[in-house]
Inverse folding.
């Protein structure tokens, strides 16, 4: 069973993520703040991290950089945001995020991200940080 860490200030988002990811076979831990999330990351060494762009205690990009700088190659980080801001997404990718997850997310959009992580991107295109939006995410952004 793979471990997942959800770092998000919203108790509702953490609960939804826990339910969905548990159904997908993940052992899920969560943190409300960036500092708490970094401490849990060091302790648990999760394979998947979902991080909220709007953390209350510190900049999410700083958390991403610290996770990246720990040098854990198998960790897959999803940057979770309510905005499709290209500059913000580029900054998140440069800081270590592997993919983006648009809030509010659902089971289908999270499953798309997990499939892409596993190499299951069936569109036949080169994996791209911006091109793997789930249909439900695209509809919400339009």
């Amino acid at each position: 069973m793979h471990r997942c860490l959800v770092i998000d200030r919203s108790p509702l988002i953490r609960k939804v993520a826990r339910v969905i990811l548990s159904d997908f076979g993940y052992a899920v831990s969560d943190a409300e703040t960036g500092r708490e999330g970094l401490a849990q990351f060091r302790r648990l060494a999760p394979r998947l991290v979902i991080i909220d762009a709007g953390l209350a205690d510190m900049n999410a990009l700083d958390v991403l950089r610290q996770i990246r700088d720990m040098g854990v190659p198998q960790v897959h980080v999803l940057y979770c945001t309510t905005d499709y801001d290209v500059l913000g997404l580029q900054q998140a990718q440069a800081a270590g995020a592997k993919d983006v997850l648009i809030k509010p997310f659902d089971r289908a959009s999270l499953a798309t991200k997990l499939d892409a992580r596993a190499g299951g991107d069936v569109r036949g295109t080169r994996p791209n940080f911006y091109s793997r939006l789930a249909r439900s995410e695209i509809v919400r952004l339009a």
User: Anything to note?
Assistant: The domain at 3-141 is CATH 3.40.50.2300 (Rossmann fold). Confidence is low (pLDDT under 50) at residues 120-128, 138-142. The chain has six helices and five strands.
